[in-house]
Amino acid sequence: MLSVIVPVLNEEANIVPLVEELTLAARTAPIGEILYVDDGSTDATPEILRHALNEFPLLRVVRHERRMGQSAAFRTGAEAARFETLVFMDGDGQNDPADIAALARTRDESGRATRVAVLGQRAARRDTAVRRLSSRLANAVRGRVLRDGTRDTGCSLKLIRRADYLNLPYFDHMHRFLPALLIRSGVELLHIDVSHRPRERGVSKYGFRNRAFVGMVDLMGVRWLMGRRLPADYNASEITRGHNA
Question: Most exposed: 33, 165, 176, 235, by fewest CB within 10 Å?
């Protein structure tokens, strides 16, 4: 079963429509819970979520008392999740819940080892020209520096084992570097194209100025981490009582 983790900040108009879609998606995808993490919203989001709990049986809600950021919200959701496989997605309605079934199917049909993550990559961006350009530039720089083999790390729609996610080093803005961090941890990555929808309600919380500088600083930090991962043939065994040297 899947725990779908949805961080939100002041998304009052998107709550009910997206939960309805996720509930519908649970008919074709093994969704065991829909876990919303309210990142300190100051609009009607908390109240709407409280009312929605009475209407949607799969819904759970965790709330930050103040804004902590998307990475913190993802981490909170992962820690609170009841199931061992996580699906992350945005709460603005631009990710399509219908794609969750494809993530799960790709994992199940891969025949790969258990340590595998399935990452969505937006086939066609439905954003402004400025956001598309800034994202394309950021992905190009990140890909060249980290060599993570991921075309679109900004797509939040990802399926990751809970144990693998919680094993990653945590820092603010880490969600932008999940492919590289997973590779560093020994997780195999699979990529699939997913849909992307225009934002119909609410206002984006991100822009070029609040991402560029911080992103470059974090990029250098992740590059440093990548150079200090355990070797591929690393192994350790327990020495028990009675063992003779």
Answer: 235
Q: What is the pTM of this model?
A: 0.79
Between CA 97 and CA 145 the distance in angstroms is: 32
Domains of the chain: 2-226 (3.90.550.10)
Quote the strand ranges of the chain, DSSP E.
Answer: 2-8, 31-39, 59-64, 85-88, 116-122, 158-161, 188-194
Which residues, 6 or more positions from 230, have their beta carbon under 8 angstroms from its beta carbon? 186
Q: Count the neighbouring beta carbons within 10 Å of the beta carbon of residue 201.
A: 13
Backbone angles phi, psi at 27, to 5 degrees: -75, -25
In angstroms, the Cα distances linking 237 to 50, 115, 185, 186, 240 are 49, 20, 19, 18, 9
Interatomic CA distance for residues 58 and 97, integer angstroms: 14
Nearest CA to 158 among 86, 220, 209? 86
Among 91, 83, 80, 104, which Cα is nearest to 159's?
Answer: 104
Name beta bridge partners: 118: 159, 190
Per-residue pLDDT of the chain (245 residues; tens, 9 = 90+): 999 999 999 999 999 999 999 999 999 999 999 999 999 999 999 999 999 999 999 999 999 999 999 999 999 999 999 999 999 999 999 999 999 999 999 999 988 767 999 999 988 766 555 555 556 666 655 556 666 778 888 899 999 999 999 999 888 888 888 998 999 889 999 999 999 888 878 676 555 455 554 566 677 666 666 766 655 555 555 555 655 54
3-class DSSP assignment, residue 64: strand
